[in-house]
Amino acid sequence: MKRNKSASSNHQIILAAAAAAPLLMASFSGAAAFTYSGASGGTWSTAGNWTGTGTPPPTTNDTAILDTTSTGRSVIYDSAASGSLNTLTLNQTLGQVNLLDMQRSSFTITNGVTLGVTSSR
Length: 121
Hints:
By secondary structure, this protein is of the alpha/beta class. The chain has one domain. Helix content is 21%, strand content 34%. The strands form 3 sheets. It has a 5-stranded mixed β-sheet with strand order 3-1-4-7-10, with no helix packed on it. A 3-stranded parallel β-sheet has the order 2-5-8, with no helix packed on it. It is globular.
């Protein structure tokens, strides 16, 4: 009986994809969302400055959220920070400021930045 080479190749591709699926799932399972809750002038790399699930501070697969307080705030993206992030969300309250003070030579955001404004009136 002659085997169909094409069918055999398809099975190999399917088996390879099935074997890779858990690895792909594991790489995305660490993603978390963190909201900055530290004082103005605090550093990005300080775990206690963030709330959320997982292990702060936010890194490569994570989302970082900066919401303004009633007085605004500045966050120092220091040299100990990871240098990469999945997404960054900045939610501004009208009349207040979020300042991200870059003290690291590079910062890569893979999937974009979201900007929002809320009226305080």
